[in-house]
Amino acid sequence: MSTIEELKRGDLKGVKELKISSDLDEFPREILELSDTLELLDLSNNRLDSLPDDIGRLKRLKILFLGQNRFTSIPRVLSTLPSLTMIGLKSNQISMWEEDALPLTIRWIVFTDNSIEKIPLSIGKLINLQKMMLAGNSIKELPSSMRNCKNLELMRLSANRLIEMPDWVFDMPKLSWLAYASNPCSRSVDQDSRLDQVSWRDIDMDELLGEGASGIISRVKVAGKYHALKLFRGDMTSDGYPQDELLASMRVGDHPNLNRPHSRVVDHPQDSQALLFDLIPSTYTNLSNPPSLDSCTRDIYDSQQLFDMPFILEVVSGISSALMSLHDRDINHGDLYAHNILVDSSGHSIIGDFGASTIYDRKRYPKFQRLEVRAFGYLLEELIARSNISNKDEIEILDILTKLKDSCIETDTTKRPTFREIYHTISTLSR
Length: 431
Fold this sequence. Notes:
- This protein is α/β, with parallel strands linked by helices.
- Among the domains are: 82 residues, Phosphorylase Kinase, domain 1 (2-Layer Sandwich), CATH 3.30.200.20; 146 residues, Orthogonal Bundle (Transferase(Phosphotransferase), domain 1), CATH 1.10.510.
- Strands 1-2-3-4-5-6-7-8 form an eight-stranded parallel sheet.
- Strand 10 and strand 11 form a beta hairpin.
- The radius of gyration is 23 Å and the shape is globular.
- The protein starts with a helix and ends with a helix.
- 43% of the residues are buried.
């Protein structure tokens, strides 16, 4: 992180990335002098409420983070930034999103945790838009012009006021990751009483395992046995409310490829929600790394990473079976990515992280599953691209998987298979 003093002295000339958090209440005009090189600007966690009219001078700026400031509207001057592809305005005080406030170059917007009531009709002009994060606002409807966003792949709409999810949403050709829990149009469910209950007093904390947007995961001991504990936060995340993740996690049911909790924790001293899971062996690792700012919606794999065909078949067989089970229970995972899949050396897979899950009404939204099928198609595509073929039989299997992949990412959603059909196809290859 740089300091405002370094900026004013001219010490930062030639930088491509700049991050300053110094309780700024005005945009430092010295930043504009970096126009020849600056590509990423992070002014999060300040007190800004406006941008200079001539910010368009930053002709190379691609990524702009302005989260945790005091903006009350989407600054219209953003539209003058000729190279901007990503804008983050999370956790401001934004209620107004004016028409044509964003440049046509934009690929990724993060307006999570604000008070936006209406999406402008001009959203339909953003033909390059791939990722739209709008959880935690007050949006009541989606403008029909959004159907023109043909490249939109990921949309987070949880914790809004949507009365209806328009049918055209489920026909969007590339939409693959959708979440809209905690809206009037989502299905309301109670906590699953079938889970065992464990008192907080009976839990011995051992060590921190990890920390995510929705909570903290620790290794704990209960009655002499180790488990994984997820303690949920109450804050809004980029996916929505942690409470929705908790409800979905408790609803998933038993499946060898799903990370399902076995107990719910009660009697927490701060009334925090927590779940207990089986401890996943350390032999399991993430199948990939998350998307980068450049890749936007696509996972990043280690360089030179290759997978043998038996490994690939084991992974896609397990995941397709798990997704079939989830949709049988009216759960859309919403974040089906390789980086959310744990695998061992044999290819046995476990999928968890239900932060973007939506419990939906299948009769009301029968085409919801077809969106997640496209996400599965992307997973297939990534594994196929990294396949290590050793014989003629595997070439034939690869051809069948490639055709299956093509059907999963078909832009006409009605032509995509169901997860039951996908699992059946893969099962015939695994025999």
